[in-house]
Specification:
With 498 residues, the protein is an alpha+beta fold. It contains eleven helices and 27 strands. The protein has helices spanning 2-24, 39-45, 76-87, 126-129, 265-278, 295-301, 319-323, 344-350, 414-419, 439-442, 462-474, and strands at residues 49-61, 98-114, 119-125, 134-138, 144-153, 158-164, 185-190, 198-209, 219-222, 234-236, 242-249, 260-264, 284-285, 288-292, 309-314, 330-334, 337-338, 357-364, 367-374, 376-377, 397-402, 407-411, 429-434, 450-454, 457-458, 479-486, 489-496. Strands 21, 22, 23, 24, 25, 26 and 27 form a seven-stranded antiparallel beta sheet that branches. A hairpin with a 4-residue loop joins strand 21 and strand 22. The two termini are 50 Å apart.
């Protein structure tokens, strides 16, 4: 019965659409028809797409089992006999003999440049060639060439290879992925499951996808069939330009379910140029820790829209520190580019030339302010690690319940500072307990976090915290803004008041 009902609905829908058009007239929006064939485009592009093969020597185990007696788990004789066989070269502690074996993996790539000196440059994913001892490029005509790694970038998962040949190899060019629209046709070419040059077609399903693959996620999503081995292969528009590099799929089965992701050319092209010219990527660094501006945070700061990037903390001695940026600033514009959401800022900053001075517009204390920042180089090891805090309920002095927030707060004493390994500069009150039914719990506040500010005012005792919260209630405020330091660093949390 249920299946028949669905079938009838699908049959009726076209009739309803025809009736609507007849009633209201011709629509001004037309869908472009599917190409009659992709054959000419595929024939032109296939020679520039290559297969990537890598080899790696890894430790392996032989299938030969020595005649070691079997004992119940935990028996002292078990360890004795394992040691005996290991010392005599007959095993690896697990009753098996160790030896090295060669592992191979397959991926895809494409040629983007051919130089007169015989060098051709090939683009692929970093994870395709990562940890490889040897890398080979297999052309469309089955020619196999050994490749050298020119450079790689782990943050965008891109790599550039170089092969040398006397032949002039076909190549393709990057297009402008920013012009690609949801619904546009695309062509994907790659090496799925090691089958060789394979062409699939689909449309752009979405843009700007964040799949938590890295700090600069901005993926193009497609329904074109992409499988294992397609990694590093190109995504073409109908003009034959590369608008994406196929990198990942979402799949509960391991095979294609119509959700694939590609690095847009707008992100890849600048990285590829730097890798070819310098062998590494140089990115801009602002020196701030940022977080999402939620609706409650925007309300607490007096912002009309939930946009921008909230500065949770500023790195001492960094570019932002020298320019006068402060915690609680909301960055709304960077170098003339509007920051509509937090995750856009890292990409904009990273693409900014090192040493360049840019204007930054921020929302501060209820009004706009413009600052000038000189961008510095991002180092891979630049990170702030928060002290790991242990059991927060031990040795807490004079805890106080602030029921409006659902928090139990305590003073940070020397004993508490030592117990939780808090840095000497950390000030505020430690959270002893969080009511699971309270508003703070809903915002991710947990025991062991340190509250350093409430309503933009520093606190050092639970009594100060309670007073500021009660003042906010008396003023009719619906929420208060807390500055919290936890294991992940500083962050602002807007907590509604009971």
């Amino acid at each position: 019965m249920h299946v028949n009902l669905i079938t009838r609905r699908l049959l009726v829908l076209p009739l309803m659409m025809v009736f609507t058009v007849a009633l209201f007239g011709t629509s001004s929006v037309y869908a472009k028809g599917a190409p009659e064939s992709f054959a000419d485009l595929a024939e032109e592009l296939l020679p520039a797409v290559v297969n990537i093969s890598t080899t790696q020597l890894i430790e392996g185990n032989s299938s030969r089992q020595p005649n070691m007696p079997q004992f119940p788990p935990g028996s002292p004789f078990e360890d004795f006999f394992k040691d005996f066989f290991d010392k005599n070269g007959q095993g690896n502690g697990n009753g098996q003999k160790s030896k090295k074996r060669k592992a191979t993996s397959l991926g895809s790539g494409f040629i983007i440049d051919y130089r007169k000196n015989g060098d051709a440059y090939v683009v692929t994913n970093n994870h395709v060639i990562q940890d490889a001892d040897e890398v080979f490029v297999l052309l469309n005509d089955d020619t196999r060439m050994k490749a050298t790694i020119v450079g790689r970038d782990t943050k965008t998962d891109l790599a550039v290879l170089k092969v040398h040949t006397d032949r002039k190899l076909p190549s393709v060019s990057f297009g402008d992925s920013k012009k690609t629209r949801v619904g546009d046709w695309i062509l994907a070419i790659g090496n799925p499951f090691g089958l060789g040059g394979t062409v699939t077609a689909g449309i752009v399903s979405a843009r700007g996808r964040d799949i938590n693959a890295g700090p600069y996620d901005d993926f193009i999503q497609t329904d074109a069939s992409i499988n294992r081995g397609n990694s590093g292969g190109p995504m073409f528009n109908m003009d034959g330009d590369v608008v994406g590099i196929n990198t990942a799929i979402f799949s509960p089965t391991g095979g294609s379910v119509g959700i694939g992701f590609a690095i847009p050319s707008s992100t890849a092209a600048p990285v590829i140029r730097q890798l070819i010219n310098n062998g590494q990527v140089q990115r801009g660094w602002l020196g701030v820790h940022i977080q999402v501006v939620t609706k409650s945070i925007a309300e607490a700061l007096g912002l009309k829209k939930t946009e921008g990037a909230l500065v949770a903390s500023v790195v001492d001695g960094g570019p932002a520190d020298h320019a006068g940026l402060m915690a609680r600033d909301v960055i709304l514009e960077f170098d003339g580019k509007r920051v509509t959401e937090m995750r856009k800022l890292p990409r904009i900053v990273a693409a900014t030339e090192v040493g360049r001075s840019v204007k930054v517009k921020v929302w501060r204390d209820g009004s706009m302010a413009t600052l000038k920042v000189t961008i510095e180089k991002l180092d891979d090891d630049e990170a702030v690690v928060a002290a790991q805090q242990k059991n927060p309920k031990k040795s807490l002095s004079k805890p106080k319940v602030v029921s409006e927030l659902g928090l139990t707060l305590a003073t940070i004493t020397p004993d508490i500072r030592d117990r939780f390994e808090l840095p000497a500069g950390v000030e505020g009150v430690i959270i002893a307990d969080v009511d699971p039914n309270g508003p703070a719990f809903e915002e991710g506040v947990r025991p062991g976090d340190v509250v350093t500010e409430i309503s933009q005012q520093k606190i050092n005792t639970p009594l100060e915290a309670e007073r500021l919260v009660k003042d906010a209630v008396a003023q009719g405020k619906r929420s208060v803004l807390l500055l919290i330091e936890g294991q992940s660093g500083f962050r602002f949390v807007a907590v509604r008041l009971k």
